[in-house]
């Protein structure tokens, strides 16, 4: 594969550089210089040779020529294109005064309703056009100041509407999520119910076992406590019986109670009444002996 950009070129053996002749300056074409450019048709037109319609925006390889005409020091350019059907030449040039293009020959511009030739805007002078533009700008500024509050109110209404729409969308999304979760979560709810039932049964069984173990422990503790109480009550009962036999029989004599004084401080001193003493305990009888006295007695 050959290189696209080469440093040396091939010259055949029969090459004769004297045969290459340059055109002298006096023989070269004079006039405006043309430049090849790529452009799009600035307006829709109809070819006068074959009647072909060329729509606006179609691309052409054109030649641009700078004319000697000027408008307020603005150069006017002429463009040359070829018809796509009959290859006849079509020329048009710029129109800086009307900010448009003018078709010269080879084609006819199509009718456009906004370009009425009877329109006064096309016939007004530069001064009239400047005055009209200034009036339009002043009117636009006045309308902008006047409509400032209306625009603010409109923006507030739009913001409120956007907030309402956002809230409605959020509500719809939440409802759809709940519906979808409810449809998909049927089996999950059944599984969760089964797990809950199993856990409840295990908890109830554990509670029953704990209650049974506590009842058994309390019964064992009560049995041990009863045995200890029974052991403690046996010597206590014997001691109480012995004390009851040793005490004298109770007396049912009347005991006079001391009256309390009605006025504190006026107490009458009285001699204490002698309480009857209980009778002495009976002396146990001596066992029979041989008639001999005791060695410790003083009655011998």
Topology:
Blueprint: E1 34-40, E2 45-47, E3 53-54, E4 59-71, E5 74-82, E6 89-95, E7 100-105, E8 107-109, H1 120-123, H2 126-146, H3 148-184, H4 186-246
Antiparallel strand pairs: 1-4, 2-3, 2-8, 4-5, 5-6, 6-7
Account of the 3D structure:
- With 300 residues, the chain is α+β, with helices and mostly antiparallel strands.
- Among the domains are: 29-115, no CATH class; 163-209.
- The chain is 41% helix and 17% strand.
- It has a 5-stranded antiparallel beta sheet, with no helix packed on it. Strands 3-2-8 form a 3-stranded antiparallel beta sheet, with no helix packed on it.
- The radius of gyration is 69 Å and the shape is elongated.
- The model has no long low-confidence stretch (mean pLDDT 79).
Which terms would index this structure?
300 residues; alpha+beta; 5-stranded antiparallel β-sheet; 3-stranded antiparallel β-sheet; 8 strands; 41% helix; elongated; nucleus; Splicing factor YJU2; mRNA splicing
Quick structural gist:
The chain has helices spanning 120-123, 126-146, 148-184, 186-246; strands spanning 34-40, 45-47, 53-54, 59-71, 74-82, 89-95, 100-105, 107-109.
Largest beta-sheet characterization = 5 strands, antiparallel
Poorly predicted tracts of residues: none
DSSP helix fraction: 40-55%
**Strand percentage:** 15-25%
**SSE pattern, N- to C-terminal:** EEEEEEEEHHHH
Pairing-aware structural class of the strands and helices?
Answer: alpha+beta
Average pLDDT level: 79
Total of DSSP H or I helical runs spanning 4+ residues: 4
The rough form would be described as elongated
As laid out across the biggest beta sheet, the strand order is 1-4-5-6-7
Radius of gyration over all CA atoms, rounded: 69 Å
Amino- and carboxy-terminal Cα gap: 174 Å
- How many β strands by DSSP? 8
